[in-house]
Every structure is written in C-alpha cells, then in structure tokens.
Specification:
The complex is a heterodimer of chains A (115) and B (112). With 115 residues, chain A is an all-beta fold. Chain A has no helices and 12 strands. Chain A is globular. Chain A starts with a strand and ends with a strand. By secondary structure, chain B is an all-beta fold. Helices cover 0% and strands 49% of the residues of chain B. In chain B, a hairpin with a 6-residue loop joins strand 4 and strand 5. Chain B is globular and about 35 Å long. The chains are: A mainly beta (115), B mainly beta (112). The A-B interface holds A 4, 33, 35, 37, 42-47, 50, 91, 93, 100-108 and B 31, 33, 40-45, 48, 50, 55-56, 59, 89, 91, 93, 95, 97-106.
Chain lengths: 115, 112
C-alpha cells in the first residue's frame, strides 16, 4: 500500500526566508512516481513537478528545488527567498506503477509567507 | 489551451436532494479522476475513468454516489439523497496515461 506523510501541518515564514516542506512516502513498488502540487487560496491544485523512482537527480526550477532521497524515502521541496505569493497549501503525492493509476496525496502543508 | 473546467463552481442543496456535478477535461486526456477534498485534508480519491469506462470506483463512499463518462470526455458525478456529510469540494482531474494530473477549480458542495 502506498502512503504519503507530510508531518508539517503549517509553516509560517517571513518573506525572503528559505523554507523546506517535508514529504516522506511508503511503497513496496520499485517503480513509482512522486509529485508536488500547489493549492493557492483560489483552490485549484497546480502541478509543480513529477519525479520517477529511477531518477534521483535533484531538480531546480527558479526558486524551487526538490531533493529526492530513496534511502530515506523522502521527496522534500525547498523554496528559496520565499515570497508572499508562495502562500498556499502544498501537497505531495505518490503513485505506484503497479496497480491502478491512482495517486495517494498527503494531507498537505500550509505555507504562510508574511511580508 | 483550455484547462479542466468544472460546473457549477458552487452548489448549495438541501439534505435529501439529488445533485449533479460536471467535469470537462483537457481535450485528448483519456484519464479522468474525481476526488473529494474536505477542509484541511488532501484530495480523497473517488473514481477513475479510462476512456468511457470506470477503471476504478473503489473510492466511492456508498451507492448514493455514481459517475458517468458516456463519450469518454465530459464526466458527471451524481449524488443521490445528499447528506450533510457530503459537503466538500469535489475536484476533477485529467491526465494522459502515466502522467501528472491537471486539476479543475472544483465544485464546492454545501448540503444544508
């Protein structure tokens, strides 16, 4: 069974601080996909990144970076120099290759960036 | 191109009534998913369509919930005899096989 844990319920930072959102997952599959989504106050989930289990290379996209470590079953997300517009709920998700194409979502981390 | 659209954006109904929620996926996306999201929670899977057929409906909470996708594009989620506990945001997402899902803005259902 697949499981995603986002232990941080809410994080509050001041603008320009760096912040890391944690994601720990559980799966018995050797092939799987990990995702991060952003849900701003408007409510629509926005896709940020997909990573497959065979690609442990870290990724950077502007102020966003992701650290995938299979050894610790973690896929953490860091925002550098946070901005007020980063305020949102962030969800980590896992989908196993075997079985159905249904991802499991974590409970989300609410990030509040204060000016 | 156009993203996933959902109508209505808000629906208020009375306990015991029937409601239909519509999802229009991204053109060409064969997979369509329905989720339910309660406050402070992540999306909870309801049903997944591949083409016209329901490939996995294991997330539907009971037989009051039903969904269709007759032509492999637009989907309708139907809830009979609504209960106050059905109040939530209902999210629809579509994807190409094996790829990331793209979500619609959701329908906020309130059952009074």
């Amino acid at each position: 069974a697949q499981k995603v844990t986002q232990a941080q319920t809410e994080i509050s930072v001041v603008e320009k601080e760096d912040v890391t959102l944690d994601c720990v997952y559980e799966t018995r599959d050797t092939t799987y996909y990990l995702f991060w989504y952003k849900q701003p106050p408007s409510g629509e989930l926005v896709f940020l990144i997909r990573r497959n289990s065979f690609d442990e290379q870290n990724e950077i996209s502007g102020r966003y970076s992701w650290n995938f470590q299979k050894s610790t079953s973690s896929f953490n997300f860091t925002i550098t120099a946070s901005q007020v517009v980063d305020s949102a709920v962030y969800f980590c998700a896992l989908r196993e290759e075997g079985g159905s194409y249904i991802p499991t979502f974590g409970r989300g981390t609410s990030l509040i960036v204060h000016p | 191109g156009a993203g996933v659209s959902q109508t209505p954006s808000n629906k208020v109904t009375e306990k015991g009534k029937y409601v239909e929620l519509r999802c229009d996926p991204i053109s060409g996306h064969t997979a369509l998913y329905w989720y339910r999201q309660s406050l402070g929670q992540g999306p909870e899977f309801l049903i997944y369509f591949q083409g016209t057929g329901a490939a996995d409906d294991s997330g539907l909470p009971n037989d009051r919930f039903f969904a269709v996708r007759p032509e492999g594009s637009v989907s309708t989620l139907k809830i009979q005899r609504t209960e106050r506990g059905d109040s939530a945001v209902y999210l629809c997402a579509s994807s190409l096989m094996n790829n990331e899902q793209f979500f619609g803005p959701g329908t906020r259902l309130t059952v009074l």
